[in-house]
Write a structure and sequence with these properties.
mainly beta; 5-stranded mixed β-sheet
Length: about 325
């Protein structure tokens, strides 16, 4: 029931941790559309659901998925779910420009913190008010945007959405649990210029950007860009945002160079961030070409490295690769 062609599969744990959201792009007769399902503990919950197109004839692509939840009285979870972000535009090509949309998906829980029997996931606005999925999802960017990434903060439940504009700059917005835009409360941040400094200006385009919430209550945005000195060599950079003194505020730290990527890793893709629950840090992984001895033909490898919450590496760069004999 997922259509003849499926791609861009994304998965995230719900905010309460009792279920998972899975999303993908289904292609039917040349048209790309976002589909999703919620998986409870050991069973599917509700039907497969397609996100309606905001405009007929458009194409949806480049999904991002992050946790969402609502606590009731005494901090007891009453809603599990996830946030979905995607691009809708005139092209079906990955990383192409269009309008970025954000939709919250809510799963109501019973007194035992299980999905309500006989129910199904429903759409919710940024303010948490639930409605039908036939409602138009909130428009975040009117156009000329690509590669959205969404995350939710556990505990305080802010939602952070980042994307790349047509100037190669990373944009960022932050909403609180009631849907209020608190981006202005993030100090040290130009909302339309998260990652463009003189020494880190994208000579081609900022690429592969992602945002993820950290265990300590902040979040990190990581991306790949060319250096000023050379468009061929690239760096993996990050900017870490720590909680401010007042609730719902964040302070942007300086841009940190996580790694310098030489010519053998220029074709990197699939950049992913993973938060650590034990030490508050995070890991970055990506795929790129690698040769086992610098002479043999290169094959795709998975690279990974871990960092502290301040962006300091905690291990050496690791490559996991299968080389055909």
């Amino acid at each position: 029931g997922v259509g003849p062609v499926v791609g861009d599969v994304q998965m995230a744990a719900g905010g309460v941790g009792i279920g998972y959201g899975v999303s993908w792009i289904a292609t039917n007769a040349g048209a790309n559309q976002v589909h999703f399902r919620y998986i409870g503990l050991g069973a599917l919950y509700g039907p497969e659901i397609a996100i309606p197109l905001a405009q007929a004839g458009r194409q949806q692509h480049d999904i991002s998925i992050g946790a969402y939840f609502v606590d009731g009285a005494g901090g007891k979870p009453i809603v599990d779910g996830f946030d979905l972000a995607w691009v809708e535009g005139g092209s079906a090509a990955a990383h192409s420009f269009g309008a970025v949309y954000l939709q919250r998906i809510a799963v109501n829980l019973d007194a035992a913190k299980d999905p309500v029997a006989g129910g199904q996931p429903v759409g919710a606005g940024l303010d948490g008010v639930q409605g039908g999925l036939t409602d138009a999802p909130p428009l975040v960017v009117a156009g000329n945007a690509r590669d959205p990434s969404v995350t939710g903060l556990h505990g305080t439940n802010e939602t952070i959405l980042s994307w790349v504009d047509n100037g190669g700059r990373i944009n960022l917005r932050v909403w609180n649990n009631s849907g209020g835009d608190i981006s202005a409360s993030t100090t040290g941040l130009d909302r339309t210029n998260v990652g463009a400094l003189a020494s880190l200006r994208a000579l081609s385009n900022t690429d592969q950007q992602h945002v993820i919430g950290l265990a300590g209550g902040g979040f990190v945005v990581a991306w790949v860009t060319s250096t000023q000195a050379s468009a061929a060599n690239k760096v993996l950079a990050a900017r870490i945002f720590t909680p401010g003194a007042a609730a719902g505020t964040f302070t942007a730290g300086p841009i940190v160079i996580l790694d310098t990527l030489d010519g053998t890793t220029n074709a990197l893709a699939d950049l992913q961030l993973t938060a650590h629950t034990d030490d508050g840090g995070f890991s970055v992984s990506w795929t790129a070409q690698d040769s086992p001895d610098g002479v043999a033909p290169a094959t795709n490898a998975i690279f990974s490295r871990s960092y502290t919450a301040g962006g300091l590496p905690t291990d050496a760069l690791g490559a996991f690769v299968y080389h055909a004999p």
